[in-house]
Amino acid sequence: CPQNVLSCSTEALAKKADTCCYEQYGVHVLTQQWNKDVGPADMFTLHGLWPSACKGKSPPTFGCDNSRRKKKVKSILQAAKPELVADMLIYWPASDNRHDEFWGKEWTRHGTCATTLDPKCFKSYTQNEDIVEYFSNAIKLHKSHNYIPALASKGIVPDDTALVDPKDFKDAIKTKLNIDVEISCTQSADGTEEILNEVRTYFNVKLTSDYTLTAAKGRNSCTKPFKFPKK
């Protein structure tokens, strides 16, 4: 495989048949969530790393490879990389504490769609190497994209009463880090307020684990000033 061809580039799309060299779903979305009841007070937690189409058809809703479906993955990861599991319990927890099931769903639905992680693509594949690589990549990206300091530098901090303008939130990250993110909000229980839910960062990929930032592709669902509550 060529070493310097980015997924979704003209060259990659022209040779898209070789999905061991070029990600079929070449935009990978690092999806970080803000849940006031989950994870460290000074960091978003992970929802997942989601392969998505460069253009056109998106990956199947329930994953891309039934033969690699897993209900649980913790024991696999623990045997291969116990330090990875320790990080995941901090930075990738499930809101209901059913961490293993949560991770299994993320692998089955999203991880199996990373085509360069197909077992046939490894030079000397060892069992479950694809699973370990997927979660390792996600945690590495998450740790290197902590947006709390950039937001704080512009006076945007978690607060139970203040409202944050969506443009100000995105601009704080863009100005400080030159990263274009997409933000998502949910409705409060009474439907009167929007509450920050997720920040999504988009990447193109070289081979299995070399990620390069690209512009956000989706539409922001935060339509008005929103709550960014304290944890």
TrEMBL record:
SUPFAM superfamilies, sorted: Ribonuclease Rh-like (SSF55895)
Domain of life the protein comes from: Eukaryota
GO biological process per UniProt: RNA catabolic process
Recorded GO MF terms: ribonuclease T2 activity; RNA binding
Ranges that cross the membrane: none
InterPro entries cross-referenced by the UniProt entry: RNase_T2-like (IPR001568), RNase_T2-like_sf (IPR036430), RNase_T2_His_AS_1 (IPR018188)
GO cellular component: extracellular region
Family stated for the protein in its record: Belongs to the RNase T2 family.
Protein name per Swiss-Prot or TrEMBL: RNase Sy
Organism, scientific name: Linderina pennispora
